[in-house]
Design goal:
The complex is a heterodimer of chains A (112) and B (232). Chain A is an all-alpha fold. In chain A, 55% of the residues lie in helices and 0% in strands. Chain A has one domain. The longest helix of chain A is centred in the middle third of the chain and has 15 residues. The chains are: A mainly alpha (112), B alpha/beta (232). Chain B: Keywords: Hydrolase, Iron, Metal-binding.
Chain lengths: 112, 232
Amino acid sequence: MSEQARPYPVLMETLDDIGERTDTTLRCIDHEPEVWESRMQTTCECLSKAGILDNLERRHAEDRLGESIYKRFPVQTRSVLTVAHTLMDRGLFTEQALRDKMSSVRARLEEK
Amino acid sequence: MAKHHGDGHHDGHNAFDVSSKVSEFEILELAVRELAIEKGIFSAEDHRRFAEWAEGVGPHGGSKLVAKAWSDPAFKQRLLENGTEACKEVGIDWLQPTGVGTPSDYTFFYVLENTPQVHNVIVCTLCSCYPRPVLGMSPDWYRTPSYRRRMVRRPREVLAEFGLHLPADVEVRVHDSNQKSRFMVMPMRPEGTEGWSEEQLARIVTRDTMIGVALPRADRTSDAGSLAEQAR
């Protein structure tokens, strides 16, 4: 299945939360990974082991998408953007399903 | 009797801030994971098992290997001859966490010894292959096309960006990782560490020294520290 060349709006909306990439040198883009980043790498391993999205294939997609339609995002967001983008491209879930799931997750995590 | 915590602290820890905003990426990650679990692609238990493994690996594994090799010539020989087997002597099993490794990690592992004439550095031009069982998760910059593309073409220029300036008579060898082969650099033991224990030595063998973009020093115990030094 071919890759959608346009970014998904549901993913572009997250840019407001993290801000555009600002790195200028290799060293300044080294940072302590946040918990969600480590969890995302684990999700990538599970997807690869399940034969849904091979790690090497994902890394190539990260390069392709991260240097083009999601270029404004910081490097550490590439895995989650690429996985979400690719799984929607492949019809594993729709953009609306992702949006709905994000709403329910947000409501749970922000519960006071 | 319940303790009073009116000052917002509990045994020196700050109370949980209920007003803190949840990151949209935290939400996105969890949403993608839950959708995958609902579709039956993997289970929450699969995810927990991989997460537990990932949390246990880090550069401390590689630091132990190097410190032991510096202290024990026979171990050093075994490490250079069969890295995967020698790893077991410090408790690192490349077959974890599934019995066949992770989908991207069970490969041949080679340790590259630096000498006064040769400096080694690792890269993955193809993607971001990295010896995770011994170094943990790769730094962000290691995965960038900027590092991967330029390290194989102009290694001295890239090393200089990390503050590493090597003499012209030192040969720089760049090792390109791939799906079958992973590498780690064994730096030279620095001066001023005579008589040190393996624990002391391990503290100066930082992640960047095992990638090859920094050199260990007796007074350097953190890659972040060297960044601060450079900024001064």
